[in-house]
Amino acid sequence: MQPGDTETELGVPIPGRILEEADWARTAVKRLPAPGPLDWSAIFGRSAPLVLDLGCGNGRFTLGSAIARPEMDHFAIDVLPVVIRYATRRANQRGLHHVRFAVKDAQTFLRTYVGDGAASEMHLYHPQPYHDPRQAHKRVLTPAFVSDVHRGLSAGGLFVVQTDNPDYWHYMTRILPYFFVFEEHEGTWPDAPEGRSRREIVARQRGLHIFRGAGVRRDDLDLREALDLAASLPPPRFRSHGPWIELDRWEESHR
Ligand SMILES: C[S@@+](CC[C@H](N)C(=O)[O-])C[C@H]1O[C@@H](n2cnc3c(N)ncnc32)[C@H](O)[C@@H]1O
Question: What is the third-level CATH fold of 8-32+39-253?
Answer without folding.
Answer: Rossmann fold (3.40.50)
